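Q: what does this look like with magnesium ion bound?
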Amino acid sequence: MVMGITLYDGKGSADIITGVMNLGRQIEQYLPQQVLELVRDISGQAAKQKQRVYLVGGAVRDLLLGYPNFDLDLVVEGDAVRLAEQVAETGQAKLLAHHRFGTAKLRYENFTLDLATARKETYARPGALPAVTPGTLKDDLIRRDFSINAMAISLAANDYGELVDPYQGESDLERRLIRILHPESFSDDATRILRAVRYEQRLCFELEAQTDELLKRDIPMLDTISGDRIRHELELIFKEKQPEFIINRLAELKVLPRISLFLKGDGWIVEKFDKARRLKKPTQLPSLYFCLLIYSFGETGIEQFLARLNIPAKLSRAMRDTLRLKTRLPLLDKSPLKPSEIYYLLREYEPLAIQANAIASDSSIVHRHFRLYLTKLRYLRTSLDGEELKRLGISAGPEMGKILQILHKAKLDGEVKTKADEKKLALSLKSA
Ligand code: ATP
Ligand code: MG
């Protein structure tokens, strides 16, 4: 166990009792009262069946760092699903159980708790999903990605608050290091390469020397990872506060070209991602980042990238549209353009692709045209519909289609304003 200086810089300081760090008081201060009572109750119920419950992973790391994180993961030495079923019966939680994986989610009104049976993992081959069997807490910790994520805090009554830290995670937090637990870690699961850089940049840590060396050695192992898993890691990167620095660091480490030869990290990405954040709600940001990430791609690059990452249809459309629209920007960089001209130039593109191009372009004329389209033109409808045109004696079919189109264009260009104007124009267009 680690002794000496403690890291916790929240309220109070960690107690070190006979070489074992006890964080009982820190948990009490860290977790909201309601969560705390629940976690204690779960641990109490487990104890009756001689099972032990631990807080693990990110929440332990963040508690020690004094950062908020209420995304709580509990590991049960025993049977997490059965325990969660019991807790759900007595409490107001909704249960989502995965018997096959020995995991369960308890959903309360304003937070969720994840419970997992302590497990042992073995990798049949690099990149494959591991074979899983029940195990001890220690087995469960060694299968984890980095020492700082491989700590646990006991929630059992007899040693409540005790830090379990077999891989010196606390010392690595202090030294600000990202360190893997064994030399084959990156080759077993190369998504850890992307995770390592994500934590390094998020926490302003460094890669420990051997971890750095092995990360570089195992970059080719990214080829063993499915598109879905790589995309998921990119999505996690895009949920970080400043993903551009993670992208640039991945470029510097030469990780990016292993995913796509055309991917770049540079000052452009820094500037444009920052601009995207100022324009877009967090929920829509990841998709916009994807469109900006591929902005310098050509046709071959984009198709390879979409296939490699198995990008879903809607996002694929937005990414392809981003590049198609980029080639048409010169047409939009002219003034004056009639509103209807702007509309016809832009209507075939996904709004996300237009936003990506708005961020990419430095032309104020292009910006003005995009803004007009996105905020007004794309919503404009004629006041008259087909039914009303019929009442004016215009029969359904090609003629009506043509008239509706002319009315719409006139409306876009402000040539008709009221319904009466539209009626007048429609009647003037009606064939005798
Ligand atoms: P975050 O703040 O990013 O959510 P976290 O530590 O909670 O950090 P999760 O992705 O939620 O990260 O995963 C929970 C825990 O599962 C991690 O702390 C880590 O111990 C473990 N873990 C996640 N992904 C892997 C992986 N690819 N290999 C090994 N362990 C992993
Ligand atoms: Mg988490």
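The first strand starts at residue 15 and ends at 17. The longest helix spans residues 313-332.
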